[in-house]
């Protein structure tokens, strides 16, 4: 009995959540990676931005090309 109620409750919750996310209600807002008018693609190619990131993380991590290892 309890298992059946749990399955029905999970299905109902998923159904309601699906309706909320398809409508005008946004639970998780869309994000934008723009900095100074540049997209994340532009930032990956920007030398100054890369150098700034390297300086910030240099104490605990290291950078190898496009990847950061901590």
Polypeptide structure, described:
It contains 3 helices and 2 strands. The protein has 70 residues and is mainly alpha-helical. Strands 1-2 form a two-stranded antiparallel sheet. It is elongated. The model has no long low-confidence stretch (mean pLDDT 79).
Cα-based radius of gyration, to the nearest Å? 22 Å
**Unreliable residue stretches:** none
User: How much helix, percentage-wise, in residues?
Assistant: 40-55%
- Series of H and E elements: HHHEE
Percent of residues in beta strands: 5-15%
The tally of helices reads: 3
> Could you report the average pLDDT, rounded to the nearest whole number?
79
User: Biggest sheet, in brief?
Assistant: 2 strands, antiparallel
Alpha carbon gap, first and last residue: 49 Å
What would the principal axes of the Cα set say about the shape?
A: elongated
Strand order of the largest sheet: 1-2
According to DSSP, the number of beta strands is 2
Detail the topology: elements first, then pairings.
Blueprint lengths: L1 H21 L17 H6 L1 H11 L4 E3 L2 E3 L1
Antiparallel strand pairs: 1-2
Which features would summarize this protein structure in a list?
single chain, 70 residues, mainly alpha, two-stranded antiparallel ribbon, 3 helices, 2 strands, 54% helix
In short, what is this structure?
The chain is mainly alpha-helical. Helices cover 54% and strands 9% of the residues.
């Amino acid at each position: 009995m309890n298992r059946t109620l749990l399955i029905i409750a999970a299905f109902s919750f998923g159904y309601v959540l699906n309706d909320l996310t398809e409508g005008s209600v946004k639970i998780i807002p869309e994000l934008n990676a723009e900095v100074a008018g540049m997209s994340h693609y532009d930032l990956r190619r920007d030398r100054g931005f890369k150098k700034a990131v390297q300086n910030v993380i240099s104490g605990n991590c290291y950078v190898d090309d496009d990847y950061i290892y901590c």
